[in-house]
Amino acid sequence: MKKVLLLISIVFALVAIPATVFLAGQSQELRKKAAPATSLSLSPSSITKKVGDTFTLETLIDTGSNQVVAAELHLVFDPQKLEAQTITNGPLFPSILVSGVVDRGSASITIGALNSRTPITGTGTAAVIKFKALEKTEGPIQIRLAQNTFVGSLGEGSTNVLTGSTPANITITGDSSAAKTSLANTANTATNSGNTISQTQQPILTPSPTPQASGSAQASSSATLNILTPAKDANLSSSKPTLQGKAPPGSTVTITIHSTPQTVVVTADANGNWVYTPTTALDSGTHNVIVSAQDPKTGKQLTSTTSFVVASGGGSVSTQSAMPISGDASTTYGIIILGSILILAGLLYPTTRRAYG
Amino acid sequence: MANIFENNTSSKATQLVSIIALLFFLPLFILVTYQTVTLISRATGTPAAIVVDTKAVLEPIKTDFYHAFSQGGEESNDMLASIVPQLKTLKPKLIRLDHLFDHYDVVGGGSGSLSFNFEKLDVAVNTILATGAKPLLALSFMPKNIAKDGSIINPPNNWEDWAMVVQKTIEHFSGKGGKNLSGIYYEVWNEPDLDQFGSWKMGGEKNYLSLYHFASVGAGRASGVNPFYLGGPATTGLYKNWVTGLVASGNRLDFLSWHSYLPNPKKFGEDQQNVISWLLPYPQATLLPKLITEFGFTGSKSKGYGTTYAAAHTGAVIRQLISGGPLYAFSFQPKDGPNQQAGDGWGLVTHDDNGKKLKPRYSVYNFIDTMVGNRIGVSGEGSWVTGFATQKDNTIRLFLVNFDEAGTHTETVPISYTNLEPGTYSYREKILFGRDVTLTETVTENTFSKQLFMPASSMAILEITKQ
User: Fold this and answer.
1) What distance in Å separates the CA atoms of residue B66 and residue B317, rounded to the nearest whole number?
2) Is residue A54 part of a domain?
3) Is the N or C terminus of chain A more exposed, i.e. has fewer CB atoms within 10 Å?
4) Per residue in B118-166, pLDDT tens?
């Protein structure tokens, strides 16, 4: 009898636990689906520009039935083809909660309603971004909202009420050599002739060769996995640098950032582009990145690695001189001390004649 | 001890070795010394190369958020009374007072039978009102007659007494039957995390959330009052657990406040980003006004407060907060305490016993006010030279500040204005505490370039106006 009861209990547990998990999951799914939908889109959705043209893109929001109070927008794009010059709030969001930042390949801003008594409802322009077309494209490329874009709404707690976003496609036509000339001129308008150091300042970009991916090789030429930015061993001022690269279209890309590991999974788009910007600031110092994805044709696992350095204190490490990075002066002090001792020894040590023989 | 070489070599050989060593190490010595000196003096950073895109019009800037000042309690009297004219010139919007309940003899009686006398505090508040500002009152510290062990940094014996103190204070100043002031900010405590002010925590025996809760209970009981704001936690810095703890506590919270004594101005901008990112899981809280109710480059007394160093730091902080910044940032403090002839007081103005002299930082606020207008796109800021630009009517203005923590960095800054209409422009360079010159310039293409030498700890506003 006891054994029967024990058996019944075990069978019950084996059935009840998965059933409970399943039902709980269904409940969450229902809740998710029941949450009113908010969507973002970029307008115009399709645009053709010439190299050197500047243009603006609006981030439109449709709040659905949500009462939106804040939106953290992150846009990503190909930094070789496009340069974001400014990002600001649109008329629908009167408050700038975090100042807009434009960087290589990304633009972000956090905007809000005036107060919680007047949340944002309906449709309208959330943000306006000004771009410059840098280089000709072979076909349309995307400007899109990154996965870490967040929209917060009254009554939804910490749920991101954003359920979808529509990118913009841009085709850039024209002579890329003209663009290089134009860019070089723009970069040279602000040279630091009064200083021994000259720097090209953001967001003025000079065209550079496509960064080569480092680390382990690809499975085949038709299945590419690489990390395009940041360049290997780049010194970065941002503690949340945007990582971009190529992967088999539609594949799931796993990104792991060391030292303190952060692992995320993103999906490569139809063109094989993947992008990720860390939501948690990276400590200063060296970070190693490993990305992996599965080749859909062969099933083989692809990996690629790179590394970069996040500068300390928010400043850029000077790339002009060969002097050591600030803080690593121990070798220098050692050389100074050793040299001083030897020089002094040579100068001061008495020389005395000895009798030989 | 004999030179080991001398046992086997002649003195000439010894000299030769010494000379070779000298020739070898001396250049190396010079090289590493040069590198070390340059490294130390230059630090790690990027020089600026400013580009102003005159067609990239952004949002209107606010020039009132930095017209806020916080007076400390080095004297337990109305310290500001003697500098009202100097304060009026600063066009203050808010002036903060703390030590309400230990410097002004407000609370009398005992638990359950408290009495209130706001006469002395009224004098101080009237002084604030005379400057054109409204008061921000830091509800601090615990009245002795209700505090545990009579210590003003302790909790009360009975929390209802604390609630009563807050209620009566709000009813006096915001009450229609009292001072009848509207829009007053009441901040719960001052630097609760500091040992000196009680070392309160987010939990435990001295739980700030209890202190805040009963303050909000008292605020809720205040009747016949004009609109007012209750907030906190007024900590010594911006701390995530304090902010999110207070937000999640469910108490009435009309604003968030903290103090920032940070030598690096860019940390002020990072703090704004951080606080929003912490609050996004509480979307409604992202919209709470943020008030930095004290700020400076150090919380210690420093002679730097009497020099252009503090002025440049303030200018650099204002630049970091010019977009997406707090509702108010309060400079600490309008007036020095007594006996600070050494020049290390925090004040914008020296004490009466030191001549009520204006210090360089005093001039920053009105200087930056000329920047009113719509912000326009600026790129190329450096590690030390930062700035922002605005457009109003026909004039483009560029504010630049050169600040480094050592106070030694000088820089010649190239500046370019792009997307200009060709024509004749007046170009004005106003250096704070320096020259103010106007030239006529002709722009034939769409770009106009200049170079500006910026001494250490300096600020400038450059204006171009199409004629």
Assistant:
1) 10
2) yes
3) C
4) 999 999 999 999 999 999 999 999 999 999 999 999 999 999 999 999 9
Last residue of a domain, one of A173, A197, A226: A173
Tens of pLDDT along chain B (467 residues) come to: 444 444 555 678 877 877 887 787 777 777 777 666 655 555 579 999 999 999 999 999 999 999 999 999 899 889 999 999 999 999 999 999 999 999 999 999 999 899 999 999 999 999 999 999 999 999 999 999 999 999 999 999 999 999 999 999 999 999 999 999 999 999 999 999 999 999 999 999 999 999 999 999 999 999 999 999 999 999 999 999 999 999 999 999 999 999 999 999 999 999 999 999 999 999 999 999 999 999 999 999 999 999 999 999 999 999 999 999 999 999 999 999 999 999 899 999 999 999 999 999 999 999 999 999 999 999 999 999 999 999 999 999 999 999 999 999 999 999 999 999 999 999 999 999 999 999 999 998 899 999 999 999 999 999 999 99
pTM of the model: 0.73
- The CATH classification of domain B68-369, taken from the options 3.40.190.10, 3.20.20.80, 1.20.1050.10, 3.40.50.2300: 3.20.20.80
Average pLDDT of the residues of chain A:
75
Same domain, A99 and A163: yes
Q: Could you read off the pLDDT of B214-226 as tens digits, one per residue?
A: 999 999 999 999 9
CATH of domain B46-60+372-466: 2.60.40.1500
Do the domain assignments include residue A24?
Answer: no
> Is B287:A95 a contact under the CB 8 Å cutoff?
yes
Burial B164-189 (b: 16+ CB within 10 A, else e): bbbbbbbbbbbbeebbebeebbbbbb
* Cα four-point dihedral sign A172, A178, A182, A184: positive
- Taking the Cβ of residue A357 and every Cβ of chain B, the question of whether any pair is shorter than 8 Å is answered with no
Shared domain check, A155 and A68: yes
Q: Are residues A155 and A64 in the same domain?
A: yes
Three-state DSSP at B132 gives coil
How far B49 CA sits from the closest chain A CA (Å)?
5
Residues A137 and A228 in one domain: no
Distance of CA A84 to the CA centre of its chain: 14
Domain count, chain A: 2
For B375, the closest chain A residue by CA position comes to A88
Domain CATH number, residue A94: 2.60.40.680
CB B45 within 8 A of CB A237: no
Tell me whether 0.90 is exceeded by the ipTM.
no
pLDDT, residue B214, reads 98
| Cβ under 8 Å to B: A residues 302-341 | 311-318, 323-326, 329, 332-333, 335-336, 338-340
A contact residues 192-211, partner B, Cβ 8 Å cutoff = 192-195, 197, 199, 201-204
For B24, the token pair is: 């070898």
- For A258, the domain range is 212-314
Closest CB from B53, B277, B379 relative to A201: B379
Residue A228 in any domain: the answer is yes
Selected residue of A323, A325, A353 to mutate for chain B interface (largest B Cβ count, 10 A): A323
